[in-house]
Structures are given as structure tokens and as C-alpha cells.
Design brief:
Shape: globular
Order of helices and strands: EEEEEEEH
Largest sheet: 5 strands, antiparallel
Number of helices: 1
Oligomer: single chain
Strand content: 25-35%
Strand order of the largest sheet: 4-5-3-7-6
Radius of gyration: 15 Å
Structural class: mainly beta
Number of strands: 7
Amino acid sequence: MASHPETKIDCSKVHVKKSSFSNDQTGDFDGAFAAVDIKKDELIEAGVVRRLPDGFDGMSCPYIFTWSTERPNKTWAMASGCAPYYNTCKEGTSNTRMVRDFEKDNFEIFANEDIKVGDELLHTYISLKWRTCFSELNDIVHKE
């Protein structure tokens, strides 16, 4: 399906299904997967965010995005498309990267390597190491 030339959201190369990381210990959760073969540096997904109200506690909610470079972070956002379903991994091992435009409230996700149809799409959350809602996940990801 071709996207409209003026669209702000395009996740046509991605689909969401049960994550390959789901197991008896973690329970079932979803992940984002390549719907087509994707070449290194190719745009995978483009989307927009909606900023959440001042005072929202993003430290306790894993389903929203850190939306500034300020630390401690006070700006949080909900993302469109399949982006909320990209699971995380250890820094330097992800097959995607997210480029955020904090001024325009949009993002683009690119391939760090060639990705085959059916591969789970992963990126390292920029707040993985310091958000309290990710403390257990951070321990799992960085376990030696």
C-alpha cells in the first residue's frame, strides 16, 4: 500500500505481533517486525508524537517516550505507528536507530544494518539506564 505524499505517519514496512522475547518468565508481549527486507540506512518508519501534559510521570510508565535531552527529563510523549512496539537491547547491538526532532515533534527510524523480512526490530531506549520503570529490564539487557 502506497502512502499519501503528505502523510506524517508511515509504518508500512512494519507489523506488530508477539515478540520473539516473550517467554514463560516474562509473559506475552508484542514486538515490531520487518514486513519487508530493509537495507542498511533505509528509512523504516516515520511518525509523530503527542506531548503529554506537564507533570506526567514518565519515570513509572514504560509505554511513552523520553522527549527531550534535558536531565532529569520532564517532557514525555506518546508515539504514533509501530514505534511503541520496538523492544530494546544492549547499546551498540540494535538493528535500528530512532532520530527524534524535538522541535517538530516527529521521528524517523532507520536501519543500522540489512534487516530481513520477519526480523524483530530493536532499538536501545535512550532512557533505559535511568528510568525507574526500566530498572528490571535494564538489568536483563545488560546481564553478562
